[in-house]
């Protein structure tokens, strides 16, 4: 899957924000500053939401034949899976779950992404077959 320019920027912004947030979250958990977690989590969520809304709505991939929306879904899923595994391996204070649970979470993300892929491809660009061939 060839990524659009905006999708690459989206991946870079949210990959970097994930590294920063997870590092800060680990520091807050280790130092027991639990009251400061919520503002950081809200800011992290806002970065994802705003970058997705802005970059997704302004993505001018007119010549792209694939599903642009799915690019963003796949990027979110990939960053989510990488975040889970890196947190477990590098920052154990914020990921105190077992490997079996982590594996099941990874499978759930992959299954949800695959389901979105198949649903999105049945109705490209929000048009179903009845509307397309009226």
What's the layout of helices and strands?
Elements: H1 5-30, H2 37-57, H3 68-90, H4 99-122, H5 129-132
Helix pairs in contact: 1-2, 1-3, 3-4
Task: Describe the model.
73% of the residues lie in helices and 0% in strands. It has helices spanning 5-30, 37-57, 68-90, 99-122, 129-132. It is built from 5 helices and no strands. With 134 residues, the chain is mostly helical.
Please report the total strand number as a whole number.
0
- The count of helical stretches stands at 5
Helix content: over 70%
How can the largest sheet be summarized?
Answer: none
Shape: globular
The radius of gyration is: 18 Å
How many domains, as an integer? 1
Order of helices and strands: HHHHH
- The low-pLDDT segments are none
Helix/sheet category: mainly alpha
**Range of strand content:** under 5%
């Amino acid at each position: 899957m060839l990524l659009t320019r905006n999708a690459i920027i989206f991946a870079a912004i949210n990959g970097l924000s994930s590294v920063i947030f997870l590092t800060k979250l680990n520091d807050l958990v280790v130092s027991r500053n639990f009251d400061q977690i919520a503002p950081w989590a809200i800011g992290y969520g806002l970065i994802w939401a705003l970058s997705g809304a802005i970059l997704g709505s302004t993505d001018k991939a007119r010549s792209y034949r694939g599903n642009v929306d799915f690019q963003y879904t796949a990027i979110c899923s990939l960053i989510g899976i990488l975040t889970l595994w890196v947190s477990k391996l590098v920052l154990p204070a914020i990921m105190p779950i077992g490997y079996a649970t982590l594996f099941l979470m990874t499978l759930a993300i992959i299954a949800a992404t695959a389901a979105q892929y198949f649903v999105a491809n049945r109705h490209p660009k929000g048009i179903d077959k009845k509307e397309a061939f009226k």
